[in-house]
Write a structure and sequence with these properties.
By secondary structure, the protein is an alpha+beta fold. The protein is 22% helix and 28% strand. The protein starts with a helix and ends with a strand. The longest helix has 14 residues. About 4% of the residues have low confidence. The radius of gyration is 18 Å and the shape is globular.
């Protein structure tokens, strides 16, 4: 399932309409700036299409009582979306899954390593995985029960939330800053500490695509 800018923004429009709200009203109800989902926010000044932030999408799902599966249904088929054509994503616990045991060298989940699974509609890439927060280390940014869907195939962009896997089997949640030929820079979501980690110490970096319950 490959999502386009237009499909995601259309799903947000549909979600607002389903709740008898304008997109501005939906944003206000979620505690966001009223212009968050305005048409002017969907492209930048050069005309390049922009994605809504995962945080803003998470907030409107939360206040509307909409699951991630339901939202993806709006992406595909509108209000009449069903759950046909479900795909499985490996699900593990963030606190218990270590990189060397649960992932290969490129950040792809090893199916033989005791993963559970969650289902999403559509055909999805086989490199996606989900980790569930089971402690309070990242509170209040990430709460117990939050699930992160990520891919190590997609290069992170500045400001993306990422999972950084190190050679000593650490998994760190952070906000990506930049990568050079010698280092990877990011902010640890738990400690708010800024890291500049040698490239040689990083096994892989996965871009977080979705955060939800």
């Amino acid at each position: 399932m490959k999502l386009t800018h237009r499909e995601i923004w259309t799903a947000i429009d549909r979600l607002a309409a389903r709740n008898d709200l304008s997109t501005s009203g939906l944003a206000i109800k979620a505690g966001l700036n009223p212009t968050t989902f305005n048409p002017s926010k969907r492209v930048n000044r050069s005309g390049r299409q922009r994605w809504p932030s995962t945080e803003s999408v998470h907030k409107i799902l939360e206040i509307s009582g909409t699951s991630a599966v339901e939202f993806l249904g709006l992406v595909e088929n509108g209000d009449n979306a069903g759950l046909a054509g479900m795909a499985s994503i490996p699900l593990g616990s963030f606190e218990q899954h270590t990189t060397r045991v649960q992932f290969n060298e490129k950040g792809k989940p090893l199916k033989s390593s005791g993963w559970d699974a969650i289902t999403f509609p559509g055909q999805l890439p086989d490199d996606l995985f989900a980790l569930e927060i089971t402690g309070k280390e990242y509170s209040p940014i990430l709460l117990e029960g939050d699930r992160l869907i990520a891919s190590a195939k997609l290069a992170p962009r500045r400001g993306d939330r990422v999972i950084v896997a190190t050679l000593n089997d650490q998994i760190i949640l952070g906000i990506f800053t930049r990568a050079t030929t010698s280092s990877v820079e990011f902010t640890d979501l738990s400690t708010q500490r800024n890291y500049s980690m040698p490239v040689a110490s990083v096994r892989w970096i996965a871009r977080i695509l979705w955060i939800g319950q």
